Amino acid sequence: MTKEGLIRLLSSRGSGNHADLREAIELADTRLRGRNRCSGEPAVEHSYEIASMLLQICQCDEVVIAGVLHDLPEDTGLLISAIEKQFGPTVAFLVDGLTHEPDFGESDWEEQSFWHFFKLWYYARADPRILLIKLFDRLHYFRTRRAMSKNSRQRHAQETIDVLLPMAGWICGSMYGGLEPVRSWIEELQRLAGDDYQDESGSLAAFFSRPELKTISRMPRLGKAGDG
Questions:
Q1: Please, what are the domains in the chain?
Q2: Which positions are catalytic?
Q3: pLDDT tens track for 47-79
Q4: Whole-angstrom Cα distance, residue 191 to residue 13?
């Protein structure tokens, strides 16, 4: 998805001028300019692709903006506080929940993945829409996975099959009462990730039985930044 294509899709919605969303598109274009993904496509087009899918299921501008900006803290050093100042607390909250913490850099990849998804699950208690962004982020990864290493594909597949898709089922039930309107995308992701899935006995397969998850129900419900 190009910048021009995303703007055309946005214009087709026909309501409002979406000034903040247009500003986010320009910010992503500026911050990610000159960066390419392993597939060779401009990095910013990944962000635009996620935004386009969010627009197609009629998510509000704040969620789409978070989709556009979700990689900027990790890839460009953009601070969450700067996002909050420019786009408000809801956008900052969603982006923060999607951002990997650096504190687990020395642990093995499965443990890093556990804590990333633990954080995501925790944030989703306050705003389940965060999982839609993660779902579309992972779908676009697998659509372009041929350029990724075998090791990367297998790790992402294990995360997706063992953790993300069960979470996606929960979010769809919570928000829509079922898999619609994202059924086709979930089925595509399940098929693509299934092609690279290897280890049914890995620690991520036991994600939802980890004792740490039980602490979430006892933790204070996380409010979005700026909530009273």
A1: 1-99 (1.10.3210.10), 107-228 (no CATH)
A2: 74-75
A3: 999 999 999 988 899 999 999 999 999 999 999
A4: 31
